[in-house]
Structure formats: C-alpha cells, structure tokens
C-alpha cells in the first residue's frame, strides 16, 4: 500500500470469510487487498450515482400517476 494503512476490525459472515480466504489463496492476494478493492469499487459506484443525480437535479419532477398516464397516452403501455 502506498500510504499508511489504518487498522480496523471487521466481522464477516463465516461463509463470506471462507470465500475470501479461498479467493485470497487462488489469486495470491491478501484478504486486505481483496476487501480494499471491493470497497473502492463500491465507492466508485456511489460517485457515479451522485454525479448522475447532480446532472439531473434540474429536471422537472413527475409523479407516478402522471408518468403512467403519459405512457398510456403515448401508446407505450
């Protein structure tokens, strides 16, 4: 790791822990590396969602009822 790592205690479901140990052995990567990568990917997904929400924040809101009526009027349902 390129920066000073922080220590944390994480409790895994026993089956998840077993799967992590197996993947760690098969990929020659530590459980720490696997968990860090998974967390980075989850955070990256969150960033993409936030950016999408920000891009659409000025779009007009439409209720479910209005949307269904519009879809019916347009012949889509």
Structure, briefly:
With 77 residues, this protein is mostly helical.
Walkthrough of the structure:
The chain has 77 residues and is an all-alpha fold. Helices cover 64% and strands 0% of the residues. The chain starts with 13 loop residues before the first helix and ends with a helix.
Rg from Cα: 22 Å
- Classification by helices and strands: mainly alpha
Number of domains: 1
Number of helices: 3
Structural shape:
elongated
Average pLDDT metric: 93
Distance between the termini: 53 Å
Give the helix proportion (percent range): 55-70%
**Uncertain segments of ≥5 residues (pLDDT<50)?**
none
Order of helices and strands: HHH
SS elements, strand count? 0
Profile the largest sheet: none
Supply database-style keywords:
77 residues, Ribbon_hlx_hlx, 3 helices, CopG family transcriptional regulator, elongated, mainly alpha, Arc_rbn_hlx_hlx, single chain
Topology:
Elements lengths: L13 H14 L3 H25 L8 H10 L4
InterPro entries: Arc_rbn_hlx_hlx, Ribbon_hlx_hlx
Protein name: CopG family transcriptional regulator
Organism: Desulfofustis limnaeus
């Amino acid at each position: 790791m390129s920066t000073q790592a922080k220590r944390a205690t994480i409790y895994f479901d026993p089956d998840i822990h077993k799967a992590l140990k197996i993947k760690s052995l098969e990929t020659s990567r530590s459980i720490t590396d696997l968990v860090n990568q998974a967390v980075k990917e989850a955070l990256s997904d969150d960033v993409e969602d936030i950016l999408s929400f920000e891009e659409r924040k000025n779009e007009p809101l439409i209720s479910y009822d209005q949307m269904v009526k519009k879809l019916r009027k347009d012949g889509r349902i």
